[in-house]
Amino acid sequence: MPAQQLAGLTRAQAPRVRRFGHRRSHPRTLAQPYRIRRSCGGRPRGRDNGGVQVAVCGPAEATPEETAQARRVGELLAERGVTVLCGGGGGVMAAVAAGVRDRAGLVIGVRPDDGTAPALAELSASVVTNMGQARNAILVWSADAVIAVGGSWGTLSEVALAMRRGGIPVVVLGGWRVVDAHGAPVPGPVHAATPDAAVRLALGS
Asked: Which Pfam family, giving just one, matches this sequence (predicted)?
């Protein structure tokens, strides 16, 4: 509509113009983890760890011992006010999510699928990647520390990605150990004997 015609219209008569705001994008390097806004889910109880995000990895087909350990890890991290990231599946992932929710914490599932399958009820929110196992990289690069509970090929890939990334604590509770051709342990992640020790090592206190 021409400007001279617009000038003669009242506010109610004027056409509505939808304004699309331009969100300024800031460059982000892989060394800067992506953050989940905590305001949407509330602040977990316990000591505030300044928005620390810890990824807990483990097999979807877990033993009862691994499930119990993962649940305890989730409880301890939630008590410390940590945002917990997991793969959003069953086994260790479901157990750690349940532990976090038991302590009214925040747990985010970084899912490998397209989101058509129902999400775990224990999750505070889900990130649907539709990237298959490539989502392991997103999970690891979004974390300030990684705790692996139990062992599987998928878990091993997450530990390897975390070690390859460097600069963050990588803690293994049970599971597999990597050895060289002579059977000697390969230096890498720190091994913990208990869930309490794993959380202390991951958080540095």
From this structure: LDcluster4
The CA distance from 78 to 172, in Å, is: 19
Q: What residues in the chain have per-residue pLDDT under 70?
A: 1-50
Q: Report the CATH number at residue 164.
A: 3.40.50.450
Q: Which of 39, 65, 57, 23 is nearest to 139 (CA)?
A: 57
Please tell me the chain's helix, strand, coil percentages from 3-state DSSP, rounded to the nearest 5: 35, 15, 50
For residues 67 and 58, is the Cβ–Cβ distance under 8 A?
Answer: no
Q: How far apart are CA 157 and CA 69, in angstroms?
A: 20
Which residue type sits at 28?
Answer: R
Asked if residue 139 is part of any domain, the answer here is yes
Cβ–Cβ under 8 Å, residues 76 and 105: no
Give the residue numbers spanning the domain of 54: 42-203
Q: Which whole-number Å values give the CA distances from 193 to 92, 172, 199, in the listed order?
A: 17, 9, 11
State whether residue 191 is helix, strand or coil.
strand
